[in-house]
Structures are given as structure tokens and as C-alpha cells.
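Pilot study result, target chain (163 residues):
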Amino acid sequence: TNCGPTTRGLAQLDKWLGNGKWDVIHFNWGLHDLKYMDDKGRLVPVEKGHQQVPIEQYAKNLEELVKRLKKTGAKLIWASTTPVPEGATGRVKGDEVRYNAVAKKIMEKYGVAIDDLYCVAISRLSEIQRPRNVHFTREGSEFLARHVAASILKALGENPKDN
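Predicted structure:
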């Protein structure tokens, strides 16, 4: 599912986790938190809305989510939020950097591994991201998926090159 902002994560996390045992949880919240919405919950140009979850509340929500995820006993991996390009509707380029900085401090505080997807994506952004859009091309999604899979395999103690 699309987990949306941290507010949805707080409301749905127990349902998503269920009763199973988790070895690794690779997660991210941020891109939906920092987007601008109108009072009806629609994505709008920045000047016509407000951030879905302001950065101070994002920090509180994310810390609570990390505390709850830690209780699973799983190895946790937080993925930094990927770049917001100039001209993306409802988002401001650079907000992801601010949200990532807040999140990084929380991950360091709780000893959560960091998968820096922001840096991975930015190294090839013009090739893998759609113009003026936070989403990626098919090839870009595959590139990021391979990177994420490798970080999960590493957390499981497997060599990604063996798979």
C-alpha cells in the first residue's frame, strides 16, 4: 500500500505489521508529509495550500513510528526521501533535505540503519526521474528497487551478488 504521511502510518502501523515476525523492515515517510494540500485533502500548488504534516509534527510522528517499529525486533532500515525536482506540483525543492535532516537525527538516536536513497537517486537524477515530478521512470524505479533489495539482503546477512 502507499503508506502516505506519518499520520497515516501512526493510524495503520499495527494493522500493517499484523502478528507476523519481521526480520527486516525497510521504511520511509516524508514525501507525503511535506506536500501541500488544500482543506479538502487535494494536492495543490504551494501558494494555495498547507503542508500535510509540518516538519515539527513530522519529527514527533516519525519518532513514535520508530519506537513502535523497534518493538518488532526487526532490523530497521530507514530510506531517506528522494529528491523533489523544481516545478513538482505541491512540493518545494529542498523541503526533502530539511525533512531528511530531521529524520536522520531520529534514526541516529535509535540506532536505525540508513539507506540514503536521496544520494543514490541524485547521482543519476536526470536519467531516472520524471521531469517536474517526484516519481521515477520505469528504469528509475528498477534502479532504486535493486538498491533497496541489496540493502535488505545485506541486513539479512546475505551477499546481494549471490542472488
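One observation from the pilot: The two ends are 26 Å apart (CA to CA). A full batch analysis is planned for the follow-on phase.
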